[in-house]
Amino acid sequence: MNAVIAVFLGLMAVVSAGALVVPHQQQQQSGDNDWDFILFVQRWPASACVNGHVTGGQAATPQKCSFPPEMAPNAWLMHGIWPTKTGTEGPVNCDKTAKWDINPVEPLVPELKADWSNLESNTTYDSFWSHEWLKHGTCAQNLPALVGEFNFFNVPLTLREKYYDFHAALANKNILPDANRKYSHDAFAAALQTAYGSTAEVWCAYDKGTKEHYVAEIRLCLTKTFDLMDCPDSEVKPKSTLGTSSCPTSQELIYAPVKPTGVPILPRPTRPTPQ
User: Residues of the signal sequence (predicted)?
Assistant: First the structure.
């Protein structure tokens, strides 16, 4: 049995057993939530802050960037799981009446702070999760495994921990964060193809001052059963509304190290065990 499908079946069993929280306010939906596949997106924190503000952040006005002490060191961070209709960047904001409720995800907060960190200064610690839930989570409520806040965050954290350690996948091909070294787009693509057996998309942030491209995001495409699939060609766009774009294939890319902030890194949290 495919390992990712096995995880999906396990997740569904937990849903059926009632161990995952399904909040009552998600019974009603509005807007178009018709979609075909899931974008599983992680971001590299050094590149998310390449211009001094958060690339692909939650606010319309760019926010200054900071690394919280809970952030996992040398790790790609979750950006989100995005229900996607082929050829679009949506749907988004499918339930205009939805409200963010932190209570269902309280058991996940230590892990969310480490692996789904909010990099925007002067915002509440949960504001990024709220943004992801309202924009993308409300559009995932027609998939049983992602119903409710807890499931929407717990499923990708589980998949990330078990299968999608991008730092390790790249390191296995000697692609490491290094301020004095550049890599080709093909090197990244080949490393990810080797690790996962399907195409992955590498997205970059562009530094207007240095005119350099910094590897900022890696996107995998998943089916509604959380199996890997090749991303549709029409999903690859030259630019995104998030401030990132497909990395150029003709220029070398920078995979920048995360600079120390002087703030001690807190101990890595352990995953909660469903009761």
Answer: 1-17
Asked if residue 134 is part of any domain, the answer here is yes
The values of phi and psi at residue 137, to 5°, are -65, -35
What CATH code is carried by the domain that includes residue 75?
Answer: 3.90.730.10
Residue 117 lies in a domain: yes
Which one of the listed residues 53, 131, 136, 185 is annotated catalytic?
Answer: 136
- Is residue 22 in some structural domain? no
**Residues 173, 190 contacting (CB under 8 angstroms):** yes
Read out DSSP for 207-268?
ETTTTEEEEEEEEEEE-TTS-EEPPPGGG--S--TTS-EEPPSSS-EE-PPPPP-SSPPPPP
79 is catalytic: yes
| pLDDT band, residue 27 (cuts 50/70/90) | very low
Question: Residue 129 belongs to what domain range?
Answer: 33-174+219-241
Q: Catalytic residue at 132?
A: yes
Q: Is the peptide bond before 91 cis (omega within 30 degrees of 0)?
A: yes
Among candidate residues 70, 111, 120, 132, the one labeled active-site is: 132
Tell whether the model's pLDDT for residue 61 goes beyond 50.
Answer: yes
- Angle between helix 3-17 and 148-162 (nearest 10): 150
Q: Is the pLDDT of residue 15 over 70?
A: no
In a domain, 107, yes or no: yes
Q: Per DSSP, what are the bridge partners of residue 222? A: 38, 228
Looking at per-residue pLDDT, the higher value among 53 and 207 belongs to 207
Q: What is the pLDDT of residue 246?
A: 85
Q: Name the pTM for this structure.
A: 0.81
Residue 16, H or E segment = helix 3-17
Q: How many domains does the chain have?
A: 1
